[in-house]
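hey so u asked for the seq, here:
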Amino acid sequence: IGVNISKFTKQNDGAMQILCLSDIQNGNFDNSSIGRYALKSEKKMNLEKYKVENGDILISNKGPSVKICMVSDVNSNTYISSSFFRVRAKENVLYPAFLKYYLESPFGQFLLKSRQLISSTNIINTPSFVTLPVHYLPYEEQVALVDKLVAQESAIYEKIANLKQEIDEVK
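ran it, structure tokens below
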């Protein structure tokens, strides 16, 4: 779980960027839209454990829907808010993109939603999250499967774009 954002002041020239739920849209975030912050007090905080790195998987722990994002092209002073769990895959054991697809799958969504505590804001608590089973293949098979999924997604998006163009030509 990330930093408690109430301990920071939003500043356009703040040294830190803190990812919030609203920054994640359709599994992605835009570095330029992430809020900049500065610490409210002079008290030192150990922020390293909240730092975001490329390849990290972020999973929202609050709200009616579970947002999932794989971090890429992140600025060096970017941290997660307390609205996220961060998973850093062990190199050559779990491929980050495989984990993202797994968690986005119907089975992964079922596992995540089954851990939500139903209240005014659905919450996944830490003890429930850390017991989430992750079934994975050998690393090379994970990479091959992700490559295949990415190619299929690209083909689908290309077909959608072509169909939209055909519709526009008919109008």
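The mean pLDDT is 85. The first helix runs from residue 96 to 104.
lmk if thats what u needed
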